[in-house]
């Protein structure tokens, strides 16, 4: 899942981003509304965590443009103003959810994950294939009853492959879904993550390489 955090308080933005990355999400950061729109134009984000009070271009205007352009990105609006009137206004302009500051990180994570599920085709929170059971809500994985200790990137790669339900996922698609845009070594990172993931999944091979096309879960 790819998330764009739009927050002008850089410390808070990085704190949110690092937390979400620890929970196996690919996260980019924008510090103002115009930067957010540029990133939305060139990147496919499942969820945007949007501060309402942004410099330059207000968060309300960013939200309106997301709606006007028909983007599939779900919007979680953050603001220090948490009255009922503020929440109604935020939702009325097209935000999918609203969270007042200060907030608990666990609640933010839960809301982002819920919005991410709405941004993608409806699938159960527990994904299965090739003997693998992936619980996306609890962030747990097993194969044939054996617990798998996966890194956040390995978990995210496996989730992307299982969500494809047997279809081929290209390396470019994995990069788009799992890695942040400022990762300069992403192509090699895909190969490294897949190599480690395959080793942890064990035999028989659960991830197949389709030459010239990408990867898929073995049927």
Summarize this entry quickly.
By secondary structure, the chain is an alpha/beta fold. Helices cover 42% and strands 21% of the residues.
Mean pLDDT: 85
What multimeric state do the chains show?
Answer: single chain
What is the 3D shape? elongated
How does the major sheet shape up?
5 strands, parallel
- The number of distinct helices, counting runs of at least 4 residues, comes to 8
Instruction: Provide the helix percentage.
Output: 40-55%
Kindly provide the radius of gyration, computed on alpha-carbon positions and rounded to a whole number of angstroms.
Answer: 18 Å
Q: Note poorly predicted spans.
A: none
Strand order of the largest sheet: 2-1-3-4-5
Order of helices and strands: EHEHEHEHEHEEEEHHHEE
| N-to-C CA distance | 24 Å
Describe it:
With 219 residues, this protein is an alpha/beta fold. 42% of the residues lie in helices and 21% in strands. The chain contains eight helices and eleven strands. The protein has helices spanning 10-22, 33-42, 59-68, 84-92, 105-119, 152-163, 171-178, 186-201, and strands spanning 2-6, 26-30, 47-51, 74-79, 97-100, 126-129, 132-135, 140-143, 146-147, 207-210, 214-217. It has a five-stranded parallel β-sheet, sandwiched between helices. β7 (132-135) and β8 (140-143) form a beta hairpin.
